[in-house]
Amino acid sequence: MPPTPHWIEPHPTGIYVRPADAWIDPAQPRDRALVTHGHADHARGGHGHVWATRETLAIMGLRYGTADGTPLAYDETFKLGDVAIRYVPAGHVLGSAQIVLEHAGERVVVTGDYKRRSDPTCPAFVPVPCDIFVTEATFGLPVFRHPDTDEEIDRLVGALHAHPDRCVLVGAYALGKAQRIICTLRARGHHDPIYIHGALEKMCALYEDFGVALGELRPAAGVAAKDMRGHVIVAPPSALNDRWSRRLPDPITAMASGWMRVRQRARQRNVELPLIISDHADWDELTATIREVAPSETWVTHGREEALVHWCAMRQMRARALAMVGREDEDDA
C-alpha cells in the first residue's frame, strides 16, 4: 500500500501541492491557486493566478472580481513543476471539477464538492481511480439519504396546483441550486414563467450564456402580487422571511436543501414545504464513490468527517480527517 505522498500537504486553510508550488481551494490569497468551483468556501478573490474551468473563472469574475486566470477544459492536462494536472467533472454546479494530480508515480484526486445525481445544469461526476482520494462529507451521516429529485419537484408542482390563489416561494442558493430547480421544473413539464429575486438575475444570465436553458424568467421586483398567483418564485434562502417576501400573494414557503431532511431546520426557517434536494452526495453515494475509486487512502473534509473515517476503518480502509477551516454548505452560509 503506497504511503501518504509527502508532496501533498493538507493545511487548515487549503491543500498545498509542494512540487507545483500551488494551493487547492485556499481560504487565503495565494500566488497560485487551483480552484475546484465557484462557491465562496472554495473560491475567493485576491489570488495572484487562478487555474479553473472557463465556467468557474466566469463565476469568480462575477462574484469576486477575479480577472487573472487560466481557463481549462475538462480532461485537458497541463503541468506545474513536475506535477501533471487535469480537471474532471464533479457534478456539483456549473464548472465544478475534481482536480487530478499525478507526480512520482502517484495519483491524488481532490474532489472539492460533488454529487452523483443527474443535474441538467452541469456534466456528471466522473470517478477516477487513485491512490489518495480527498472527499467531502457534507452529508456524511447515515441519516442523510436524499430522495428522488424529480419526486421532490413534483411535490412542489402539486402544491402549486392545489393552491392556485397562492404562489410557491422556493429558497435556493444563487449559484447552482436555483438553476437546477428551474431546469428540473422545465424537464417536469412546468413551462410557465418563473419569477426570480433580483439577487439571482446575473447568475441565471451567466448560466444562459454557457448554454443552460432556463426558459422564461421574470424579475419579481415591481410585479403586483395578484400577477404572481399560481406561479413559482425562486429567491435566496435569506429572502424567505424578510420584508421582500411580505408582498407576495400568500406564499407557500419552500426550501430546497439536503438539510431539509432535518425537521428542526425546516421549523427554524418556517418552511411549509421542505424539499430535500442537495448538490452534495448523500451517505450512500459517498460510500459508494469511495468503493468505486478504490483509493489506498481516503482523506475526508468539509462536514461529518468522523463518521466517514469510521466507516472506512471498519472496512480496513486507511482514512484520515483533514479538519480544514471555512468549509461549510453555502445553503447555510
From TrEMBL:
- Transmembrane spans: none
Q: Which InterPro entries match?
A: MBL, RibonucZ/Hydroxyglut_hydro, Xnuc_lig_assoc
Which EC class does it fall in?
A: hydrolase
The alphabetized UniProt keywords are: Exonuclease, Hydrolase, Ligase, Nuclease
Which molecular-function annotations from GO does this UniProt entry contain? exonuclease activity; ligase activity; RNA endonuclease activity
SUPFAM superfamilies, per the entry: Metallo-hydrolase/oxidoreductase (SSF56281)
Q: What is its EC number?
A: 3.1.-.-
Q: Is-annotated flag, keyword Lipoprotein?
A: no
> What protein name does the entry list?
Ligase-associated DNA damage response exonuclease
Q: Which organism is it from?
A: Sphingobium algorifonticola
